[in-house]
Write a structure and sequence with these properties.
- By secondary structure, the chain is an all-alpha fold.
- The protein has five helices and two strands; from the N terminus they run ααββααα.
- It has a domain of 31 residues.
- Helix content is 49%, strand content 3%.
- Helix 1 packs across helix 2.
- The longest helix is centred in the middle third of the chain and has 32 residues.
- It starts with 10 loop residues before the first helix and ends in a 15-residue tail after the last helix.
Length: 149
C-alpha cells in the first residue's frame, strides 16, 4: 500500500526501494549517532536551516564515500585489518566503518620543534636543508587525494 500513483513507479521499482530502506535508514542514523557530537540547535532563518542540512548531508557523503572506497580496496587486495576494535585489537575485519577508521587516527598530533645544533650539523653533512623539518607546509591548492574514480 502506497500513496505513490501506480503510473510513477513499477512494482519492481517500489520493491527495490523498499528493500533498500534499511540501508538508507542506517545511513541517516549515522547523523543522529553520538559519534558526531551534534547538539540541539535552534535556528529560525530558513536559509541557515538549509545550509546546516546541506553541511550534514555533505558530511554524510564523505563518511559513506570513505567507507565505500576503503572496503572496495580491501576487497580488491583481499586483506583484513587488525586493531579497529578497541575491545578486541586482535580481531580482524573486512567491513570497517568510517567511524572506526577515524578512531584509528585519533592519537595523531602534529608539532614542530626546533632542531638542536647536532641535528642541524648532521643535516648539513648530508647536504640537506633544515627546511625539510622547519617548513612542513602543505600545498592546500592541490587535493591530497583524488575523489573522482
Amino acid at each position: 500500500m502506497s500513496n505513490v500513483p501506480e503510473q510513477a513507479y513499477t512494482v519492481q521499482q517500489i520493491i527495490h526501494t523498499y528493500r533498500r530502506q534499511p540501508l538508507l535508514e542506517r545511513t541517516i542514523s549515522r547523523l543522529k549517532s553520538r559519534n558526531l557530537h551534534i547538539r540541539p540547535i535552534s535556528l529560525h532563518d530558513q536559509q541557515r536551516i538549509c545550509a546546516l542540512a546541506w553541511l550534514l548531508v555533505l558530511a554524510l557523503h564523505i563518511l559513506v564515500l570513505t567507507e565505500f572506497r576503503i572496503r572496495r580496496e580491501w576487497k580488491f587486495r583481499q586483506q583484513s585489518i587488525l586493531g579497529l576494535k578497541s575491545s578486541s585489537p586482535a580481531v580482524a575485519t573486512n567491513r570497517p566503518t568510517t567511524e572506526r577508521i577515524l578512531q584509528a587516527f585519533e592519537g595523531i598530533t602534529w608539532s614542530i620543534v626546533s632542531l638542536e645544533e647536532t641535528q642541524l650539523h648532521i643535516l648539513d653533512l648530508l647536504h640537506l636543508s633544515a627546511d625539510i623539518y622547519l617548513n612542513l607546509n602543505f600545498d592546500l591548492s592541490k587535493p591530497l587525494f583524488n575523489l573522482r574514480e
